[in-house]
Amino acid sequence: MQRFNHLVVVVDGEPLASTEVIAKGMKAQHASTIKLLRKHQKSLERFGRVRFEIQPFKTNGGIQSREIALLNEQQAALLISLMRNTASVVSFKTDLIAEFFRMRDALNQRTQGLWKQLQAAIANEVDSAVRASFGSHLMLDRKKSKPVLQGEIRRLEAEIQPGLLLN
Hints:
The protein has 167 residues and is of the alpha+beta class. The chain has helices at 19-25, 30-39, 41-44, 73-81, 87-132, 136-166, and strands spanning 2-3, 9-11, 14-18, 51-59, 62-71. The radius of gyration is 23 Å and the shape is elongated.
């Protein structure tokens, strides 16, 4: 899990907001937020499976645990649209939606950078193959560079794969 700020986390390449963050931002009780989510869970799941987790939290009586849900952008937008609007709630809704857009842009830029690196690695590998065809000395250089170049290509392709699922 990768945190970019207090509103949105990235899990398996997908930006998500927790019901805990939503409840705090909306100045609502977390239990009420989960109750609202459960009431409208079918509608929320039109946009994907709702991820539930049990998380510990501190109280005066010791450590307790509670159920939270991690929601994708569409689920979070639907859930907050079902909540009452006050000036602070509208401000939070605006911040949360802006963060989802910022996160999507950041993930897309990262993927584009990986694509450029992959193209450069493939070009280097092809260049190495062409040079190797010109003589034995160059063939020896090709044998040395080929595993490194192919490893780099495999690494970049593996890194890009989760990004392909976001688009």
